[in-house]
Write a structure and sequence with these properties.
By secondary structure, this protein is mainly alpha-helical. It is about 60% helix and about 0% strand. It has two domains: about 1-100, no CATH class; about 135-249, no CATH class. It is built from eleven helices and no strands. Helix 10 (about 215-225) packs parallel to helix 11 (about 240-245). It is globular and about 55 Å long.
């Protein structure tokens, strides 16, 4: 296991529960009789898919074995996009679920980090980036997507959550010689910075709420910008083996 906060049985049970819930939502979301009920189901589906990826990482699964779950997240996001596209332009659910939230940004950076660690080919990476969406809306998502191959993507000037992510955006934009120190500084305050996200205190929350505290957003910067990261390796939130997998030939 990579995460010692919970037992192997805890992770196995929660992976099983989330998988069953995810598969049910794959089956019933687009066929749900009430159209107004579909966006919420699609949102739940995407949340379950994300949690499965991180639960499996926390549980210690081989990184390559997690690929199927990452692709399920992509499929879930594509389903959500179809559901939202079917709604009128100003429908309140369309507006609500298309809005960029803090977890939208974290999830996007997380999935891009996994895409690199899994050595997605160009077709898989394009599908992932298309599923993430939001071109030109958040500077961090845009920087990551361009680094992973979406070179024509428009780039926002700022990130949507500057109090959380401005220091990380600075890592992407600063002189390469300054990047190791700046990334180390952000990693040291990452847990405090990410506090506004919904899962930040989940270890102390309801049973089953916790799926892991991992700074995949930091890892993506280290991977995509080839930042020397030896000083980050003792950070308990840093997924060092994910970075190693991305760097492996």
């Amino acid at each position: 296991m990579r995460d010692s906060h919970k037992t192997a049985d805890y992770f196995a049970d929660n992976i099983s529960f989330a998988t069953k819930a995810m598969l049910k939502r794959f089956q019933d979301t687009e066929q749900f009789p009430r159209i107004e009920g579909r966006p919420g189901r699609a949102h739940d589906l995407l949340a379950y898919a994300l949690q499965i990826v991180i639960l499996r990482y926390s549980a210690g699964d081989e990184i390559q074995a997690i690929k199927a779950s990452v692709l399920q997240w992509v499929e879930a996001r594509e389903l959500q996009q179809r559901v939202l596209a079917s709604l009128p332009p100003k429908h309140e659910d369309k507006v609500m679920y298309e809005r960029i939230t803090l977890d939208t940004v974290y999830d996007a950076l997380t999935m891009m980090a996994f895409g690199r660690a899994l050595h997605f080919n160009s077709t898989e990476m394009k599908r992932l980036i298309d599923a993430i969406g939001h071109p030109g809306e958040d500077a961090l998502i845009d920087a990551g997507a361009r680094a992973l191959g979406d070179v024509q993507r428009p780039v926002a000037e700022t990130c949507k959550f500057p109090k959380v992510y401005d220091p990380l955006l600075e890592v992407w934009r600063c002189d390469p010689s300054e990047r190791p120190a700046k990334l180390l500084a952000f990693s040291k305050v990452w847990k405090k910075k990410i506090k506004p996200i919904y899962w930040s205190d989940s270890l102390n929350g309801a049973e089953g709420a916790y799926f892991g505290y991992w700074c995949f957003d930091v890892a993506l910067a280290a991977i995509a910008l080839n930042i020397e990261d030896s000083s980050l390796r003792d950070n308990p939130y840093y997924p060092g083996d994910l970075v190693d997998a991305a760097r492996a030939i």
